[in-house]
Amino acid sequence: MSDGDPSLEEDVPKPLLERPEENVFTPKIATPIYTAGVKLHHNRSDAIETELFLTDSQRNDLAFQELFQGGDGEYIETERETEEKMADMHAMSVLSTYQDNLSQDLNTDRDNGSEASTREAEECGCGEPAILYPDTSNNNGKPVANHCSIVMGGILNNPSLTFNDGVRSVDFVLVWEAGKEDATTSEAFQQRKIFEQNLEAEGLQLEREAPEDLHGLHFVKIHAPLGVLRDYSEILKLRMPMKDCSKIRKSGRTNAILNAAMYMSKFTALKDVQEKTNSVLDRMEACWDRIMSKIRVDPQMFPERKHRLTAIYSKDKEYLFDTGSDCFWTPSIRSRIVQFILDRKRFSELPSDDFAFGIGRLISNNTYSAAYPLHDGNLKTPGSMRHLLYTEWASVSKCLKYQPLDYVKDYFGVKIGLYFAWLGFYTHMLIPASIVGLICVIYSASTVYSNKPSEDVCNYVSKVKMCPLCDYFCEYWDLRDTCLQSRITYLFDNNTTVFFAIFMSFWAACFLELWKRYSAEMTHRWDLTGFDVYEEHPRPQYLARLAHVKRRQLNVVTGEREPMVPFWRMRLPATLMSFSVVALLVLLALATVLGVVLYRMSLLGASILRRNDNVLITSNPIMFTTATAACINLVFICIFNYVYQYLAEWLTEKELLRTQTEFDDSLTLKIYLLQFVNYYASIFYIAFFKGKFVGRPGDYVRLFGHRQEECAPGGCLLELSIQLAIIMIGKQFINTVVEMMMPYVLKWWNIIRTIGRKNRIVSPMQWVKDFKLVDFGNMGLFPEYLEMVLQYGFVTIFVAAFPLAPFFALLNNILEMRLDAKKFLTCYRRPVPQRVNDIGVWYRILDSIGKLSVITNGFIIAFTSEFIPRLVYQYSNGGSLDQYVNHTLADFNITVLEHPPIKTQYNQTMCSYPGYWYYKEGDNYAHSNFYWHLIGARLAFVVVFENVVALVMIIVRWAIPDMSTELRDRIRREAYVINSFILDETRARTLAERPSALARSQDDRTGSDWNHIATLSGSDFDLAAHGEHQNIADIAKHVVVHTPREDQPGPAHV
User: How far apart are CA 966 and CA 960, in angstroms?
Assistant: First the structure.
């Protein structure tokens, strides 16, 4: 890097490599990284001065603010040391956070070959022995560990996690059962033999176990040696930590306000004020820290995770990486590499069998029973990360503590870690929504007795008789009977409804924008920034179906030639078939809902045929009809769930999707669309259709000869609220119970099936214990996401009808996180880590739900609630609601009533019904003028509401960028530091190996030639070695660059 490089000026005036830890509602606190040996100025003297400043080890122990002015390169040293405080994790609640303890300066000394560099690496924890519980005498008896020791501690403390030699780790286990007929055929033995031979040919090491007391269970333990790890880390383009152990120190971010404050503090009077203010702030911060220490993760149990710069692994540049670290290749990385190999090795020697590969096929045909990586220890035995997570994260008693997301990610992988990060963030965002919803309901409850329409219903002097709600069996009834119902309706149907609906639309927009911002932070933290789905290797099933396709195309990302899917012959037919079948299933689900509605109407009509004294049929037809219809609906939902899952997987497989991420996204979208219709169809019916097209007494609109269901006076909003409460709260409770019980049931079944009820043997081996657990599967997270996204739909789409939805969702999610964590640790086998950079198609689904919620809430307020009728009546009645209830009722002559009640004691001639009708000549009725004014007002409200909310959402999306400026600058700065480090390391190696190269050619050169070559600069020497320096190419033509062969270890040398 030259001193006069103008491209560096705008990048280096301030430390840009920062890791902010911020709450979405609090100011940002940034972490500058000071780099040694980096020239920051165009002026040579300034550059030297800066280098001396940055390499001074004593000054690096203090927090300095560099205030660059103009471009002169001067800096001002702050007078007081910046306090090291751990800021609250941004965008996380008391339920979730990741630990980022940035408490030390970054030291990027590039002299990695020196003793100082080795000592520095040891200080960073890169070379520490993996001992989980060292001496605790100076820490009040609490165990002390570092991040690396916790990750690897389980293997060292559990002999069953290694081969019989006690050295090689068990990275994967295959199991087959001699008790299964399919597993003992000659074909199965041959397939296993070929498959295992291919694994060993790939470099994997196998060890077989067949304990006699386990009833014919055979275990094949797999270990990935160093050579395999090196090869496949490069193939999979894994980002691995570099040798440079960066130590970061936290510091307040320098800005113009801080600079002005420092200048003003020079005045004595202002300095006294500042000192008093700082003293008060210090006490407030200390009090806040004491409160937050109750909910933060215990740093002794989950020690700080050292910030490490990473790069894509390459064997040719292996000298850049800290391969000597105990946790360089973690168990998660090792199991992922082995899984990659298992999915692609063949088990048949017949070249014509394109699909004879992969452990999945062998498990499906019972050649093997299971394939899984191992948990790193027992739940109740200290010394493993599983035990630590079980006691400190999965416990319900820790439900108000932060989540150690870094450790969750290290144990389960990025995909599961990102799920818990999203769940924690979503739960955090529910807190303000719950508070506002509770305030709205409390306000409504406090004003319910001052609501004029409700009081009119309850205190109506005249006994208003309402027309029957059904044919034959429904009696005339008093309006006063709905007193309690009208007051409960007011809790959800008042002026706060509009405010809360607008607030929740704003909340939904903020939630998605802040999640994108937080997700960018997490993906950068977990080394997934810039991860492209096209960097994933093709699915083996995808390649198998295209084995005979001769046409190839270049993958512009990976640079490899891959089979090209024929559009007309394969792609288009599969897409059309998938779309058609999904559309047919959606129509089938809608037809089921329509069938249930028709059943309810026809059952009431058919009751006239049974004129007996059966109380169940004649006295309570509506209750009986509702109960049986709900049962029928539940049965169809359960049946369709199973059918949808099977058909969706089959259709997605036919679509020829290249990567596993694309496959999962397409499958998720199909299943959610079908489940959306399943769960929400009945709610949409109540919200927008029930009671809207029933007609009037004497002229009811009948469907297949049956009278439609009507809403009670005041509309169907109360029924909608009850339906939402039952479905949301009830199904959440049922899903939680089933979700927690089913894994235990399956685990119990596995124990009985594999070990036997009478002769169960408790084996101490971890590979036996894990076999008894439930397989996580490829769709293990789908039910979890589906449950939460369906809940998100209840919270947003119909929130105008049920303001308490966010509150109940918050209560559910507080337990859901810990119960999910406990389930993953106790009931499921350890899943193979998967690499993703976001939550996939679920974000697009959430975004679509947010936009749909604006439409639904607008129509619910306008057409389902009584907000607009009350507003229009107030406007036309001088702002008063007097006689509003009477205004909403119309009268009807019962002498012309169709299908009057069979038994009645009512002897009047008129009954009332909700509606805006008036009597005309000839027994004709027509809508009043108020009805048409009301229609116009409702449509106008929908237009205004949706445009206002849409404008607010646009402003929110514009105001909140997807990535913070600090993160963007940090990514750029890290890329620059990494590139500089690589260049410096490569140059240092070249210079170190130059004398040997020159010595070999010295005998053939004259003295003047030797002196000329010896004085070459680094860049001139490199050009000469490659014959590209025009002036000295003739001198250096005998210098040869030697590189080792592929089968010869060691770095390239000159």
Answer: 13
| Half-sphere exposure (Cβ direction) of 111: Cα atoms closer than 13 Å | 8
Closest by CA to 92, choosing from 288, 388, 392, 295, is 295
What's the residue count for the chain? 1054
Burial (Cβ within 10 Å: 0-12, 13-18, ≥19) of residue 909: exposed
Neighbours of 833 (CB within 10 A): 23
- Residues 664, 840 contacting (CB under 8 angstroms): yes
Residues sharing a CB contact under 8 Å with residue 185, sequence separation 6 or more, in sequence order: none
| Angle in degrees, 0-180, between the axes of helices 405-412 and 414-446, rounded to the nearest 10 | 140
- Give the bridge partners for 774, in sequence order: 828
For CA atoms 109, 111, 116, 119, the dihedral sign is: positive
Q: Which residues pair with 162 in a beta bridge?
A: 169
In whole angstroms, how far apart are CA 890 and each of 440, 461, 697, 758, 966?
32, 18, 10, 75, 65
The total of other beta-carbon atoms located within 10 Å of residue 87's CB is 19
| SS3 state of residue 447 | coil
Radius of gyration of the chain (CA): 36
Task: Supply angle C-alpha 380, 384, 390, rounded to 5.
Answer: 50
Whether 108 contacts 246, CB under 8 Å = yes
HSE value, Cβ hemisphere, 13 Å, CA-based, for 701: 9
SS3 at position 756: coil
Q: Which amino acid is at 418?
A: L
DSSP H helices, 238-326, are 256-264, 268-292
Here the tokens at position 888 are: 């909403």
Strand partners, 527: none
- Provide the angle, in degrees to the nearest 10, between the axes of the packed helices 331-342 and 226-235: 80
Per-residue CA distances from 515 to 23, 74, 521, 846 (Å): 12, 39, 10, 11
User: 859 with 720: CB under 8 angstroms?
Assistant: no
Q: How far apart are alpha carbons 407 and 429 in whole angstroms?
A: 23
The pTM for the full model equals 0.75
Residue type, 236: L
* Residue type at 647 in one-letter notation: L
CA separation for the pair 22, 27 (Å, rounded) = 7
Instruction: Delimit the domains of the chain by residue range.
Output: 6-123+248-292, 158-246+306-374, 416-880+933-959, 965-1038
Blockwise average pLDDT, block size 10, the chain, 1054 residues: 39 35 34 34 38 35 33 36 34 32 33 36 35 38 57 68 88 88 85 92 92 82 92 88 56 51 59 71 82 81 79 86 80 92 88 78 87 89 86 86 90 92 94 94 90 82 74 77 84 87 89 92 83 66 70 66 72 82 83 80 57 42 63 74 79 79 84 84 83 80 75 76 80 74 70 54 78 84 88 90 91 90 90 86 91 90 88 86 85 80 75 81 77 92 91 87 87 85 83 66 52 52 47 44 41 34
Give the angle 314-106-250 at the CA atoms, nearest 5°: 130
From 247, 221, 284, 211, select the one nearest 105 (Cα to Cα).
Answer: 247
Rounded-to-integer distance, Cα 1001 and Cα 1054, Å = 11
CA-CA-CA-CA dihedral for 547, 552, 558, 560, to nearest 10: 80
Residues 6+ apart with CB under 8 A from 716: 686, 687, 690, 691, 864
Q: Which contacts of 1038-1046 are long-range, i.e. CB under 8 A and separated by 24 or more positions?
A: 1038/1001, 1038/1004, 1038/1005, 1039/997, 1039/998, 1039/1001, 1039/1013, 1040/997, 1040/1001, 1042/997
Q: Per DSSP, what are the bridge partners of residue 606?
A: none
Which residues, in sequence order, are CB contacts of 1005 under 8 Å at separation 6+? 1013, 1035, 1038
Alpha carbons 991 and 986: distance in angstroms, whole number: 9
Token pair 């105990």 is at which residue?
326
Query: Per-residue DSSP letters for 912-933?
Result: EEES-EEEETTTEEEE-HHHHH
Who's near 534: CB < 8 A, 6+ residues apart?
A: 555, 556, 557, 558, 658, 659
**Which of helix, strand or coil describes residue 534?**
helix
